[in-house]
Amino acid sequence: MPRQISFEVDGRAVIVGDDGASLLEALRDRLGRRAPKDGCSPQGQCGCCTVLIDGAPRVACVTPVARVAGRRVTTADGLADDERRCWSDAFVATGASQCGFCTPGIVVRLSALAARGTRADDVPAVERALAAHLCRCTGWRTIVEAWNRAHGDGQPGPLERPEEATSGNVGTSRHRGAGRDQEAAAVRAALEGGVAQAVGAEVALGGGGFADDLAPLDALVAVPHATRPGEWALGETLAEARAEAGKVQGRRSTTDLRHPLEVPEGDWDLRLRTTWVEPAYLETDASWCVPGGEPASPLANGGAFGGKTTSLAPPVARRLADEHGRPVRVLLSREDTVRLGPKRPPVAAGVRVDSSGALSGVLRVVRTPGVAAAVASVAPQLEVVEVDVAGPPTSSDLRGAGWVEALVLAAAARARLPVSVTTPAGASAAADVGDDGVAVRVECGRVLDAVVLRSYCIGAAHMALGWVRREGIAVDEAGEVQDLTIRSFGILRAAETPPVDVEVVPSDGPPVNGSDAVFAAVAAAEWLRQGCAQDWPVERASRRRP
């Protein structure tokens, strides 16, 4: 019989058994407190599980529950009602939350920062605090704006007038968030994210309805077996299931990045090689199912930019629930997601431009269903050669896989700034990257909601900058992924992300995805700024010890 641990959670006294679980597992799986999220446990690197312990922010996944005996734990749900309202309103008004998975932990961190008396205009302090977190969606700048709005002078921010929420004037102006059409905002979010998505105050505080948040507390837990591929280990708790699976703690490799393909031989004007890139969505794959039921979707409030389109979690949850005659939760750890999840297919290309501006060349790509057709949709003149390479799975469902690389090559070959691109969906974007930040202009039909569109465009710019500069994971010669920690992916942190100025050009055309166009345009503009170095990421230093 484990000893009992007494502490306070969100103002209520609780008792849990000390069976070696982390505070995060105790909160989520014993007590049903689902505001703290599990994005990497027990790596302690994503910040999604941040809570306050006696008023100080801590990551719950690496805090043993025994350590909080007699102490006061506060989750995002336990903040005072007026403070919760203030933060959620600020995050919604600035577009600082998209799927809402990482933001409850960020809100808790910012709450502690405000309680310490940090000035509203102390942006470096906010960026330092955000270094404990990762967010794939928002590109950080809107989160800093939310801090300013919630903790500042109460003035509107980032659009001047409420009516501008559905107009195209989003630049660097400010907005109160009043008068917005939430249904229109959700339509725009679905276009940008690729799946149905809720927009509202509850989302910023973690109430987007993620699959594992809705799972029954008495469900069996299933996780991938560490040494028997295709098999699943089950337990009454996550800790029990992981022990049965033989889970190995992820590590960051000292292995250098490899470029698995060589650029085709030829007299080319431009050459480009990319490496394995992790989608790095914060919510790892999860599902649950009751016997005879339909499994919960891992796309509950965010499409992971295509990364979860063919997730293995739902069918496994259904099968195991039927086999065991009781509800089953299927959970992938961060390490599982990196090993098993799809990657952006690496490419190696050589292109030339003739006197008329026409592009030709050869693009080699790791064999991936659908990728050749994706390239042909924007650059039919490129010869696509698919190559079999040992490595992790790849997918053409990932954001613009194949056609974005082709657009980047075509735009960079023209060598004109600002870079202009047009996507297969018909959206257009122009981008310039300078020492003082990123300037983006986008046209994608009816705006619907400028706050949501601006947020996705800033996030796309952040993703593009990281892709060109820093992102990549080490894969050995046998094709095994070596980088298993979330901090090893190369995602740009808040302090490394420049300001992004977004100008939306409204039109009467049908609304289409606009942020993918921004992703391509910013990647091309950044590559030009970096001198069109052949190998991406261009700023990644060698990890080998001298």
List the helices and strands and how they pair.
Blueprint: E1 4-9, E2 12-17, H1 23-30, E3 50-53, E4 56-59, E5 72-74, H2 81-94, H3 103-115, H4 123-130, H5 141-151, H6 182-193, H7 201-204, E6 220-224, E7 232-235, H8 238-245, E8 270-273, E9 286-289, H9 313-324, E10 328-331, H10 334-340, E11 347-353, E12 359-366, H11 371-376, E13 382-387, H12 403-414, E14 419-422, E15 428-434, E16 437-443, H13 450-469, E17 500-504, H14 515-529
Parallel strand pairs: 1-5, 6-10, 12-13, 16-17
Antiparallel strand pairs: 1-2, 3-4, 3-5, 6-7, 8-11, 9-10, 11-12, 14-15, 15-16
Helix pairs in contact: 2-5, 6-13, 12-14, 13-14
Structure description:
It is a single chain. The protein is 27% helix and 16% strand. The chain has helices at residues 23-30, 81-94, 103-115, 123-130, 141-151, 182-193, 201-204, 238-245, 313-324, 334-340, 371-376, 403-414, 450-469, 515-529; strands at residues 4-9, 12-17, 50-53, 56-59, 72-74, 220-224, 232-235, 270-273, 286-289, 328-331, 347-353, 359-366, 382-387, 419-422, 428-434, 437-443, 500-504. A 5-stranded mixed β-sheet has the order 2-1-5-3-4, with helices on both faces. A 4-stranded mixed β-sheet has the order 7-6-10-9. A hairpin with a 5-residue loop joins β14 and β15. The longest helix has 20 residues, at 450-469. The protein is globular.
Tell me the Rg in angstroms: 23 Å
CATH classification class of the domain at 347-529:
Alpha Beta
Biggest pleated-sheet summary: 5 strands, mixed
Low-confidence stretches: 154-178
Q: Which word captures the global form?
A: globular
CATH architecture of the domain at 347-529: 2-Layer Sandwich
How many DSSP H or I helices? 14
Q: Which whole number gives the mean pLDDT?
A: 92
* Total number of strands: 17
Helix content: 25-40%
